[in-house]
Specification:
heterodimer, A: about 260 residues, alpha/beta, Rossmann fold, 8-stranded mixed β-sheet, 8 strands, about 15% strand, B: about 90 residues, alpha+beta, 2 domains, two-stranded antiparallel sheet, 3 helices, about 20% strand
Chain lengths: ~260, ~90
Protein backbone atom coordinates (compact mmCIF):
# COMPACT_ATOMS: atom_id res chain seq x y z
CA UNK A 1 0.00 0.00 0.00
CA UNK A 2 1.21 3.51 -0.78
CA UNK A 3 2.43 5.64 2.10
CA UNK A 4 1.36 9.11 3.17
CA UNK A 5 2.98 12.27 1.86
CA UNK A 6 3.08 15.20 4.27
CA UNK A 7 4.39 18.70 3.69
CA UNK A 8 5.40 20.89 6.62
CA UNK A 9 4.96 24.55 5.77
CA UNK A 10 4.42 27.93 7.40
CA UNK A 11 4.86 30.89 5.10
CA UNK A 12 7.02 32.76 7.58
CA UNK A 13 10.59 31.67 8.13
CA UNK A 14 12.09 30.70 11.46
CA UNK A 15 8.96 29.31 13.08
CA UNK A 16 10.30 25.76 13.33
CA UNK A 17 9.51 23.89 10.12
CA UNK A 18 12.79 22.01 9.92
CA UNK A 19 12.77 21.16 13.62
CA UNK A 20 9.24 19.86 13.25
CA UNK A 21 10.10 17.75 10.21
CA UNK A 22 13.12 16.25 11.98
CA UNK A 23 11.13 15.42 15.09
CA UNK A 24 7.99 14.10 13.41
CA UNK A 25 10.13 11.97 11.08
CA UNK A 26 12.14 10.59 13.97
CA UNK A 27 9.13 9.85 16.13
CA UNK A 28 7.35 8.03 13.30
CA UNK A 29 10.50 6.00 12.65
CA UNK A 30 10.70 5.17 16.34
CA UNK A 31 7.18 3.85 15.96
CA UNK A 32 8.52 1.35 13.40
CA UNK A 33 7.28 3.21 10.33
CA UNK A 34 9.60 3.61 7.37
CA UNK A 35 10.16 7.31 6.80
CA UNK A 36 11.95 9.49 4.28
CA UNK A 37 12.28 13.24 4.79
CA UNK A 38 12.94 15.54 1.84
CA UNK A 39 14.59 18.92 2.33
CA UNK A 40 12.89 20.99 -0.37
CA UNK A 41 14.59 24.21 0.65
CA UNK A 42 16.93 24.43 -2.31
CA UNK A 43 19.84 26.80 -1.73
CA UNK A 44 19.33 26.91 2.03
CA UNK A 45 19.70 23.35 3.19
CA UNK A 46 19.27 22.71 6.89
CA UNK A 47 17.55 19.43 7.60
CA UNK A 48 20.91 17.63 7.35
CA UNK A 49 22.50 19.67 10.17
CA UNK A 50 19.42 19.44 12.36
CA UNK A 51 19.57 15.64 11.96
CA UNK A 52 23.35 15.60 12.43
CA UNK A 53 23.96 14.05 9.01
CA UNK A 54 25.80 16.90 7.31
CA UNK A 55 29.01 14.90 6.85
CA UNK A 56 27.44 12.13 4.84
CA UNK A 57 26.03 14.05 1.89
CA UNK A 58 27.18 12.99 -1.54
CA UNK A 59 24.19 13.49 -3.80
CA UNK A 60 21.13 15.69 -3.32
CA UNK A 61 17.56 16.32 -4.41
CA UNK A 62 18.53 18.20 -7.56
CA UNK A 63 20.89 15.37 -8.57
CA UNK A 64 17.99 12.91 -8.39
CA UNK A 65 15.70 15.15 -10.38
CA UNK A 66 18.35 15.77 -13.03
CA UNK A 67 19.08 12.05 -13.28
CA UNK A 68 22.67 12.35 -12.05
CA UNK A 69 22.09 9.61 -9.50
CA UNK A 70 19.52 7.04 -8.45
CA UNK A 71 17.32 8.19 -5.59
CA UNK A 72 18.77 5.48 -3.32
CA UNK A 73 22.21 7.08 -3.75
CA UNK A 74 21.02 10.42 -2.40
CA UNK A 75 19.15 8.98 0.57
CA UNK A 76 21.11 9.20 3.82
CA UNK A 77 20.25 6.82 6.63
CA UNK A 78 19.83 8.17 10.15
CA UNK A 79 22.56 7.42 12.70
CA UNK A 80 20.23 5.74 15.16
CA UNK A 81 17.21 4.51 13.24
CA UNK A 82 17.72 2.32 10.19
CA UNK A 83 14.21 2.92 8.85
CA UNK A 84 14.69 6.71 8.67
CA UNK A 85 16.26 8.53 5.70
CA UNK A 86 16.75 12.08 4.51
CA UNK A 87 17.16 13.42 1.01
CA UNK A 88 19.23 16.61 1.41
CA UNK A 89 18.62 19.66 -0.68
CA UNK A 90 21.22 21.26 -2.96
CA UNK A 91 23.14 24.09 -1.37
CA UNK A 92 24.50 25.80 -4.46
CA UNK A 93 21.50 25.70 -6.78
CA UNK A 94 18.42 27.87 -7.02
CA UNK A 95 14.79 27.04 -6.56
CA UNK A 96 14.04 26.81 -10.26
CA UNK A 97 16.23 23.70 -10.61
CA UNK A 98 13.20 21.61 -9.67
CA UNK A 99 9.71 21.70 -11.17
CA UNK A 100 6.47 20.84 -9.33
CA UNK A 101 5.83 17.91 -11.68
CA UNK A 102 9.22 16.40 -10.89
CA UNK A 103 8.58 16.70 -7.16
CA UNK A 104 5.21 15.06 -7.63
CA UNK A 105 6.75 12.10 -9.46
CA UNK A 106 9.49 11.69 -6.86
CA UNK A 107 7.00 11.79 -3.97
CA UNK A 108 4.82 9.19 -5.72
CA UNK A 109 7.78 6.86 -6.20
CA UNK A 110 8.92 7.27 -2.59
CA UNK A 111 5.41 6.75 -1.23
CA UNK A 112 5.43 3.32 -2.87
CA UNK A 113 8.40 2.28 -0.74
CA UNK A 114 7.92 4.23 2.50
CA UNK A 115 5.11 4.58 5.02
CA UNK A 116 5.72 8.32 5.28
CA UNK A 117 7.28 10.90 2.99
CA UNK A 118 7.76 14.19 4.84
CA UNK A 119 8.66 17.33 2.90
CA UNK A 120 10.39 20.28 4.53
CA UNK A 121 9.01 23.32 2.70
CA UNK A 122 11.02 26.53 2.30
CA UNK A 123 9.70 29.79 3.74
CA UNK A 124 7.79 32.02 1.37
CA UNK A 125 5.05 31.34 -1.15
CA UNK A 126 7.00 31.30 -4.41
CA UNK A 127 8.37 28.54 -6.62
CA UNK A 128 9.99 26.68 -3.70
CA UNK A 129 6.67 26.51 -1.90
CA UNK A 130 4.85 25.31 -5.00
CA UNK A 131 7.47 22.59 -5.53
CA UNK A 132 7.28 21.39 -1.95
CA UNK A 133 3.49 21.28 -1.92
CA UNK A 134 3.04 19.68 -5.35
CA UNK A 135 3.50 16.08 -4.24
CA UNK A 136 1.80 16.26 -0.85
CA UNK A 137 -1.61 14.98 0.19
CA UNK A 138 -1.53 16.27 3.76
CA UNK A 139 -0.24 19.66 4.90
CA UNK A 140 0.97 20.51 8.38
CA UNK A 141 1.04 24.26 8.91
CA UNK A 142 3.32 25.55 11.66
CA UNK A 143 2.74 28.85 13.39
CA UNK A 144 3.97 30.56 16.53
CA UNK A 145 1.67 32.71 18.70
CA UNK A 146 2.86 35.91 17.00
CA UNK A 147 0.84 38.12 14.70
CA UNK A 148 3.26 37.90 11.77
CA UNK A 149 3.45 34.10 11.85
CA UNK A 150 -0.33 33.78 12.14
CA UNK A 151 -0.99 36.10 9.26
CA UNK A 152 1.46 34.21 7.04
CA UNK A 153 -0.04 30.89 8.12
CA UNK A 154 -3.48 32.15 7.10
CA UNK A 155 -2.17 33.13 3.70
CA UNK A 156 -0.53 29.72 3.23
CA UNK A 157 -3.73 27.93 4.25
CA UNK A 158 -5.58 29.99 1.64
CA UNK A 159 -3.05 29.02 -1.04
CA UNK A 160 -3.16 25.34 -0.07
CA UNK A 161 -6.95 25.30 -0.24
CA UNK A 162 -6.88 27.07 -3.60
CA UNK A 163 -4.50 24.37 -4.81
CA UNK A 164 -7.03 21.78 -3.65
CA UNK A 165 -4.99 20.51 -0.74
CA UNK A 166 -7.74 20.32 1.84
CA UNK A 167 -6.25 17.99 4.45
CA UNK A 168 -4.60 20.68 6.56
CA UNK A 169 -3.49 20.45 10.19
CA UNK A 170 -2.06 23.05 12.52
CA UNK A 171 0.83 22.92 14.96
CA UNK A 172 1.31 25.81 17.34
CA UNK A 173 5.01 26.05 18.11
CA UNK A 174 6.83 27.94 20.87
CA UNK A 175 3.85 28.50 23.08
CA UNK A 176 4.86 30.08 26.36
CA UNK A 177 2.32 28.89 28.91
CA UNK A 178 3.41 31.44 31.49
CA UNK A 179 2.79 34.33 29.10
CA UNK A 180 -0.58 32.89 28.04
CA UNK A 181 -1.58 32.69 31.69
CA UNK A 182 -0.64 36.34 32.17
CA UNK A 183 -2.66 37.23 29.11
CA UNK A 184 0.39 38.44 27.21
CA UNK A 185 0.25 35.78 24.50
CA UNK A 186 -2.52 34.51 22.30
CA UNK A 187 -3.73 31.13 23.50
CA UNK A 188 -4.01 28.02 21.36
CA UNK A 189 -7.78 28.48 21.43
CA UNK A 190 -7.38 32.03 20.04
CA UNK A 191 -5.10 30.84 17.25
CA UNK A 192 -7.28 27.90 16.27
CA UNK A 193 -10.36 30.10 16.14
CA UNK A 194 -8.51 32.63 13.96
CA UNK A 195 -7.11 30.11 11.49
CA UNK A 196 -10.03 27.62 11.56
CA UNK A 197 -7.86 24.56 10.93
CA UNK A 198 -7.84 21.43 13.13
CA UNK A 199 -5.08 21.39 15.74
CA UNK A 200 -2.51 18.59 15.59
CA UNK A 201 -0.43 19.66 18.54
CA UNK A 202 1.05 22.38 20.71
CA UNK A 203 4.80 22.56 21.28
CA UNK A 204 5.89 24.63 24.28
CA UNK A 205 8.75 27.09 23.99
CA UNK A 206 11.85 25.33 25.23
CA UNK A 207 15.60 25.76 25.44
CA UNK A 208 15.91 22.03 24.76
CA UNK A 209 15.22 22.73 21.08
CA UNK A 210 18.40 24.78 20.74
CA UNK A 211 20.40 22.17 22.63
CA UNK A 212 19.13 19.34 20.45
CA UNK A 213 19.87 21.18 17.21
CA UNK A 214 23.32 22.08 18.54
CA UNK A 215 23.98 18.37 18.94
CA UNK A 216 22.17 17.27 15.80
CA UNK A 217 20.00 14.85 17.74
CA UNK A 218 16.22 15.32 17.42
CA UNK A 219 14.43 16.23 20.61
CA UNK A 220 12.13 13.23 20.62
CA UNK A 221 15.07 11.04 21.71
CA UNK A 222 15.15 13.08 24.95
CA UNK A 223 12.54 11.66 27.31
CA UNK A 224 12.91 14.51 29.78
CA UNK A 225 11.96 17.26 27.35
CA UNK A 226 8.51 18.74 27.37
CA UNK A 227 8.80 19.93 23.78
CA UNK A 228 10.01 16.44 22.87
CA UNK A 229 6.91 14.98 24.51
CA UNK A 230 4.75 17.33 22.46
CA UNK A 231 6.39 16.03 19.26
CA UNK A 232 5.97 12.41 20.41
CA UNK A 233 2.27 13.11 20.94
CA UNK A 234 1.99 14.65 17.49
CA UNK A 235 3.55 11.50 16.03
CA UNK A 236 1.04 9.39 17.91
CA UNK A 237 -1.86 11.45 16.60
CA UNK A 238 -0.55 11.11 13.05
CA UNK A 239 -0.63 7.34 13.56
CA UNK A 240 -4.27 7.63 14.50
CA UNK A 241 -3.99 7.40 18.27
CA UNK A 242 -6.32 9.65 20.24
CA UNK A 243 -3.95 11.50 22.53
CA UNK A 244 -5.62 14.47 24.27
CA UNK A 245 -4.32 17.87 23.18
CA UNK A 246 -2.07 19.75 25.53
CA UNK A 247 -4.08 22.31 27.45
CA UNK A 248 -3.30 26.00 27.45
CA UNK A 249 -2.99 25.77 31.22
CA UNK A 250 0.19 23.77 30.86
CA UNK A 251 1.33 20.50 32.31
CA UNK A 252 -0.39 18.45 34.98
CA UNK A 253 1.53 17.92 38.21
CA UNK A 254 1.95 14.17 37.77
CA UNK A 255 3.24 14.50 34.21
CA UNK A 256 5.70 17.08 35.38
CA UNK A 257 7.02 14.74 38.06
CA UNK A 258 7.36 11.93 35.51
CA UNK A 259 9.31 14.21 33.22
CA UNK A 260 11.58 15.47 36.00
CA UNK A 261 12.57 11.92 36.82
CA UNK A 262 13.61 11.31 33.20
CA UNK A 263 15.57 14.49 32.82
CA UNK B 1 4.30 46.49 38.95
CA UNK B 2 3.63 49.36 36.60
CA UNK B 3 2.20 46.86 34.18
CA UNK B 4 -0.26 45.39 36.68
CA UNK B 5 -1.30 48.91 37.68
CA UNK B 6 -1.99 49.75 34.06
CA UNK B 7 -3.88 46.48 33.69
CA UNK B 8 -5.91 47.46 36.76
CA UNK B 9 -6.84 50.76 35.15
CA UNK B 10 -8.32 48.99 32.17
CA UNK B 11 -5.46 48.41 29.79
CA UNK B 12 -6.14 45.23 27.81
CA UNK B 13 -3.77 42.30 28.00
CA UNK B 14 -1.57 42.26 24.90
CA UNK B 15 -2.72 38.77 23.98
CA UNK B 16 -6.29 40.00 23.68
CA UNK B 17 -5.17 43.01 21.66
CA UNK B 18 -3.29 40.70 19.30
CA UNK B 19 -6.31 38.44 18.87
CA UNK B 20 -8.63 41.33 18.02
CA UNK B 21 -6.12 42.84 15.61
CA UNK B 22 -5.67 39.52 13.87
CA UNK B 23 -9.43 39.01 13.49
CA UNK B 24 -9.55 42.23 11.52
CA UNK B 25 -6.33 41.71 9.55
CA UNK B 26 -7.21 38.17 8.48
CA UNK B 27 -10.67 39.22 7.38
CA UNK B 28 -9.17 41.93 5.20
CA UNK B 29 -6.56 39.53 3.82
CA UNK B 30 -9.15 36.90 3.01
CA UNK B 31 -11.62 39.33 1.49
CA UNK B 32 -8.88 40.84 -0.62
CA UNK B 33 -11.18 43.65 -1.72
CA UNK B 34 -9.33 45.30 -4.54
CA UNK B 35 -10.78 48.54 -5.91
CA UNK B 36 -12.15 46.79 -9.01
CA UNK B 37 -13.91 44.12 -6.92
CA UNK B 38 -15.39 46.88 -4.79
CA UNK B 39 -16.56 48.61 -7.98
CA UNK B 40 -18.16 45.39 -9.24
CA UNK B 41 -19.85 44.92 -5.86
CA UNK B 42 -21.17 48.48 -6.07
CA UNK B 43 -22.64 47.85 -9.50
CA UNK B 44 -24.27 44.63 -8.35
CA UNK B 45 -25.86 46.33 -5.35
CA UNK B 46 -27.03 49.10 -7.64
CA UNK B 47 -28.63 46.61 -10.02
CA UNK B 48 -30.50 44.80 -7.24
CA UNK B 49 -31.73 47.99 -5.58
CA UNK B 50 -32.87 49.43 -8.90
CA UNK B 51 -35.38 46.62 -9.20
CA UNK B 52 -37.24 48.01 -6.19
CA UNK B 53 -36.58 51.71 -6.20
CA UNK B 54 -35.20 54.51 -8.21
CA UNK B 55 -31.90 55.54 -6.76
CA UNK B 56 -29.44 58.29 -7.27
CA UNK B 57 -26.63 56.44 -9.01
CA UNK B 58 -24.06 59.10 -8.33
CA UNK B 59 -24.45 59.04 -4.58
CA UNK B 60 -23.91 55.32 -3.94
CA UNK B 61 -20.94 54.55 -1.73
CA UNK B 62 -19.63 51.21 -0.53
CA UNK B 63 -17.04 51.19 2.23
CA UNK B 64 -15.53 48.83 4.73
CA UNK B 65 -15.99 50.26 8.17
CA UNK B 66 -13.76 49.24 11.02
CA UNK B 67 -15.47 48.85 14.37
CA UNK B 68 -13.72 47.79 17.54
CA UNK B 69 -14.84 44.20 17.31
CA UNK B 70 -16.18 43.91 13.78
CA UNK B 71 -15.70 44.87 10.18
CA UNK B 72 -18.82 46.09 8.40
CA UNK B 73 -19.67 46.66 4.81
CA UNK B 74 -21.51 49.98 4.76
CA UNK B 75 -23.38 51.24 1.76
CA UNK B 76 -25.09 54.61 1.54
CA UNK B 77 -27.65 55.14 -1.16
CA UNK B 78 -29.96 58.05 -1.80
CA UNK B 79 -33.45 56.95 -2.80
CA UNK B 80 -35.22 59.10 -5.37
CA UNK B 81 -38.47 57.21 -5.55
CA UNK B 82 -39.83 53.84 -4.43
CA UNK B 83 -41.89 52.04 -7.08
CA UNK B 84 -45.50 51.26 -6.35
CA UNK B 85 -46.40 47.61 -6.59
CA UNK B 86 -47.13 46.88 -10.21
CA UNK B 87 -44.99 49.82 -11.23
CA UNK B 88 -42.17 49.17 -13.65
CA UNK B 89 -40.77 45.62 -13.82
Amino acid sequence: MAGKTLVVTSGKGGVGKTTTVANIGTVLAKRKKSVVMIDADIGLRNLDVVMGLENRIVYNLVDIVEGKCRKEQAMIRDRKLNNLYIIPSAQTRDKDSVQPEQMKDLCCELAEEFDYVIIDCPAGIEQGFRNAVAGAEVAIVITTPEVSAIRDADRVIGLLEAGLLRDIHLIVNRLNHRMVKKGDMMSTTDIVSLLAVPLLGVVPESEDVVVSTNRGIPLVHDKGSRAGLAFRNIGGRLCGESIPLEEDAGEKFLDRMKRLIWS
Amino acid sequence: MLKSLRRFFGEKASGQVARQRMQVVLMHDRLDLTPDILEALKNDILAVLSRYMEIDQRTIRVDLEQGKEYTALVSNVHIKRVYRRGDAN
